[in-house]
Design a protein that fits this description.
about 575 residues; two-stranded antiparallel ribbon
Length: about 575
């Protein structure tokens, strides 16, 4: 669930219509706003589309190889985009068009939407070019450090897949601690650069009139900080006790397996480095059905069966682990013309089955299925949270025995699998929700006060929301070992909102298309599901805001009602 290149660009890609209306006098507005808007959009596309494609390819190559030369090309490509968007002359013209659009003088709603999107995209870059280059260079260096980093245990490099398998399988607390601490080592590697990057990002945001980078990024992504905190406060209240109950059972099982008391459990006793996933402690082996499975083929068969084929995506993808390659899966749309690719490091287990369903969920919600007739600027997903939501909607099937058996995968111990899968699926929603609380609140506080004790801030939030105690005497930049904080800032809350979107859309599909209980709707072979997704979710592209799209697809604005039903016991 690592964000692709879109998430790094999205911070400058959206606007709340009328929220930041430029201070432009009437005489500076164009005489014919529709004609002026159309001319500006066409000129922008002609100039920027080749730069976007070049940056997409450079991004892909850098993440595949990890080479210095490829990362330099990636940095150069981003600098060219920044230089074009930071030019004050076109921005001056755009301000006049935006003011006219806000006054209702651009009559074509799709054209007006493009003006809104462009205005904030250009606005973000209206800072000194030297500052933009420093931000890009620093972000590039941090990202490369993540790509090439491998945990070292007893002097030996350990790939990410081995870190995960050890934390999942080992009963030796000392071994677990070594591997967990080694996985956190990247935090120390990037800490200084990250702190400098936070400073630079805040500097740019303040120059544009925002309180800090966190405030700016939310605004540019059509989100209100106060509303967001209110939503997460409501989710905190909704999940606190169910999570505590679930964790009590998990802790008892982990303690028994590792031969310690429940109140002695440490961060390394959980099954992933951040306790963002449900530990596999419920008896049934969720990995067993995938031991000999061809995961890409399963995905191809499933998506083709619902009328959303992904063969052309898989043909261009890079799916196996190798040195220098990013250990984090993602999907990227290179050109908004159908060149969509997935980077993955597949191991035959349930985690990677879910991950591939997730990434290919992004793929089907891309220029593969967003109408070619839509203008380039809106030929993309409505928002970060909606594409994450679609990916999560499909990801959940990796834990469904009914789905597996319908797909032709044998489950040897069905009763045990069902019991374990039901627990893991429910707990996953609760655990992930609590983890997202940490990420949102940490980033908000970090950008508001970067000089504070960030190590202490991090562990204080982990203890409060995840109920995982800070290891005794540990004072390390563990927050910096989470790639999103460095390279996809102010992004993570969209995953949680995506979970709400996933539940809401799935319940709508179950009711209106599958005519089934949401827990039994598995989509396999039902092309009507693909038709619904294409018509109700994909077709509008970016012509609608995220909440307007949610209402278009489900009849209601985004809410937690369906999500709450999904984690009820």
């Amino acid at each position: 669930m690592t964000p692709d290149r879109r998430s790094f660009l999205a911070a400058g890609g959206a606007a709340v219509a009328g929220l930041l209306t430029p201070d432009v006098s009437a005489q500076d507005q164009p005489a014919d706003p529709d004609a002026a808007a159309k001319e500006f959009v066409e000129a922008h596309e002609a100039k920027m589309k080749p730069l976007d494609i070049a940056a997409g390819l450079a991004w892909w190559n850098a993440n595949i190889t990890g080479d210095d030369a490829d990362f330099k090309k990636k940095e150069d490509a981003q600098n060219q985009i920044d230089a074009a968007l930071s030019d004050p002359k076109p921005f001056g013209v755009l301000k006049g068009i935006k003011a006219a659009a806000d006054a209702g003088k651009v009559k074509d709603p799709v054209l007006a939407r493009q003006v809104d999107l462009l205005y904030l995209q250009y606005l973000e870059k209206q800072v000194p070019p030297a500052l933009l280059k420093r931000i890009t260079a620093k972000a590039n260096a941090v990202e490369q450090a993540f790509n090439v980093f491998r945990a070292k245990v007893d002097g030996q490099e350990v790939p990410d897949s081995k870190v995960r398998s050890t934390l999942k399988e080992s009963a030796d607390s000392a071994v677990r601690q070594k591997v967990w601490e080694a996985s956190k080592g990247v935090g120390a590697v990037v800490e200084a650069d990250l702190k400098e990057l936070v400073k630079l990002r805040n500097e740019a945001a303040v120059k544009l009139g925002f309180n800090n980078f966190h405030h700016m990024t939310l605004t540019l992504n059509e989100q209100d900080g106060g509303d967001l905190v209110k939503l997460f406060d409501e989710l905190d209240e909704l999940t606190r006790q169910p999570f505590a109950d679930a964790k009590k059972e998990i802790d008892a099982r982990l303690a028994e397996k590792c031969g310690v008391k429940a109140d002695e459990l440490q961060a390394w006793h959980y099954h992933d480095p951040f306790f963002q996933e449900s530990p596999a402690v419920f008896g049934g082996n969720l990995d067993a059905p995938f031991a000999k499975a061809d995961i890409p083929k399963l995905c191809a068969t499933f998506y083709a069966g619902i009328g959303l084929p992904v063969d052309r995506v898989l043909a261009k993808s890079d799916l196996r682990e190798k040195k220098g390659k990013s250990p984090h899966a993602f999907c990227t749309d290179i050109d908004r013309e159908g060149d969509v690719r997935v980077l993955a490091n597949i191991v035959p287990n349930e985690y990677w089955m879910g991950t591939m369903l997730h990434e290919l969920g992004h793929a089907v919600y891309s220029s593969l299925n967003i109408p070619k007739e839509l203008p380039y600027l809106v030929r993309a997903e409505a928002h970060i949270l909606t594409t994450e939501g679609v990916a999560m909607q499909f990801e959940r099937f990796s834990k469904s025995r009914a789905w597996l058996e319908k797909m032709g995968v044998t489950v040897d111990k069905p009763k045990e699998f069902d019991e374990a899968a039901a627990k893991v699926q429910r707990n996953q929603l609760l655990i992930f929700s609590r983890w997202c609380q940490v990420m949102l609140r940490f980033e908000k506080a970090m950008y508001e006060d970067p000089a504070q004790d960030l190590n202490g801030l991090w562990w204080g939030l982990v203890e409060k929301y995840q109920q995982v105690r800070r290891p005794k005497d540990r004072n390390a930049p563990d927050y910096a070992s989470k790639i999103h904080i460095c390279s996809a800032p102010v992004y993570y809350h969209n995953y949680m909102m995506g979970q709400l979107f996933a539940s809401q859309v799935h319940h709508t599909v179950a009711r209106d298309v599958s005519k089934a209980d949401p827990k039994r709707a598995i989509y396999v072979g039902d092309k009507k599901v693909g038709e619904f997704m294409r018509e109700k979710v994909f077709k509008p592209g970016r012509t609608l805001t995220w909440n307007a799209l949610t209402k278009h697809a489900t009849g209601e604005e985004l809410n937690a009602k369906a999500f709450a039903k999904d984690f009820q016991a």
